[in-house]
Automatic annotation (TrEMBL):
Residues 10-158 form the Glycosyltransferase 2-like domain. InterPro entries: Glyco_trans_2-like, Nucleotide-diphossugar_trans. It holds the Pfam family Glycos_transf_2. The keyword Transferase applies. Keywords: Glycosyltransferase, Transferase. Belongs to the glycosyltransferase 2 family. GO terms for molecular function: glycosyltransferase activity. This is Glycosyl transferase family 2. It comes from the Bacteria. The lineage of its organism: Bacteria, Pseudomonadati, Acidobacteriota, Terriglobia, Terriglobales.
């Protein structure tokens, strides 16, 4: 029996993008989903447009942040399958029938990654391998150079919230999104729990969703500190740091070397003084945080 299917789009001050997403869903697949929900996380900017008939707009009474808002939004959905889109994502091909077939053919399927494309039509990232300690030991820039060799090779994938489909029973079964995360690494945590549950994960091969990515805008040092906080918590939660004390001091050693190099050679290497100051303050904050909190 074909499962009931809903689309859920999240919004916070992105009404133009959300409207684009909603319109694209109707253009591509109007007759193949049961309901489309928009969850607005108490945007201070009022919505002055209109949505097509059949759209349910849920307005949060207070701003919860992405993770809590997602849990509240999912609790409002009655359908068996939920296709989740970020507001800046939208379908460029039909997608509902493929998603429904995947879930119908496998009763233990819990999560599906939808393939995404960027501005030029080439692939953008909607899933990846499960995170491991190397990204903290080497730092994100150096790790990226050796990712193909150092990445997790278990075969498990981690699906990003920008474009995913979830069986509601699986979502409830693993407890939804962990509200200890804000917006960084919540999808890794969700996928890793799904991978360790009786539910499975797969990739929809045909559908294409536009999503450029790039993350929430903020100063580099603040985003970097957030990464070090959430990634350590994630890896500790899943027991992926063999000897935490050794890992801590190796990370502190690398950060100390980076800070010393920036202090001594920063003006030669980085001409933009604002950027240099941001990097220096960022490394200093990371050293203080990791020393005090990595256990």
């Amino acid at each position: 029996m074909k499962p009931s299917l809903a689309i859920l789009a999240t919004n916070y001050n992105t009404w133009d993008l959300t409207t684009r997403c909603v319109n694209a869903c109707f253009e591509q697949d109007a007759n193949h989903f049961d309901k489309l929900y928009i969850y607005d996380d108490c945007s201070p900017i009022a919505f002055t447009g209109t949505f097509p008939e059949g759209v349910t707009l849920i307005r949060g009474k207070k701003n919860l942040g992405l993770t809590k808002a997602l849990n509240v939004a999912f609790s409002s959905v009655e359908e068996e399958i939920v296709i989740l889109f970020d507001s800046d994502a939208y379908p460029t091909t039909p997608f509902c029938l493929e998603v429904a077939r995947l879930f119908e053919s496998n009763p233990k399927l819990g999560l599906v990654a939808l393939r995404t494309i960027g501005t030029g039509g080439g692939p953008s990232e909607s899933y990846t391998t499960e995170p491991n300690l190397w990204s903290l030991l080497l730092g994100q820039a150096l790790y990226a150079k050796f990712e193909s060799s150092l990445a997790d090779h278990s075969g498990n994938i981690s699906v990003f919230t920008c474009a995913m489909a979830v069986r509601k029973a699986a979502f409830d079964g693993i407890g939804g999104f962990d509200e200890n995360f804000d917006w960084l690494d919540l999808d890794h945590d969700f996928s890793m729990r799904m991978n360790r549950s009786p539910w499975s994960i797969t990739i929809a091969q045909d559908a294409r969703i536009f999503h450029e990515g790039g993350g929430t805008p903020q100063e580099t040092r603040h985003r970097l500190l957030r990464f070090y906080k959430t990634r350590w918590y994630l890896l500790r939660k899943f027991d992926r740091i063999g000897v935490p004390l050794v890992a801590k001091w190796l990370i502190l050693l690398r950060l100390s070397i980076e800070y010393a190099m920036l202090k001594v050679f920063g003006k030669l290497l980085i001409k933009n003084q604002t950027r240099l100051q941001d990097k220096l303050e960022g490394r200093k904050a990371l050293l203080q945080y990791c020393y005090a909190n990595y256990r």
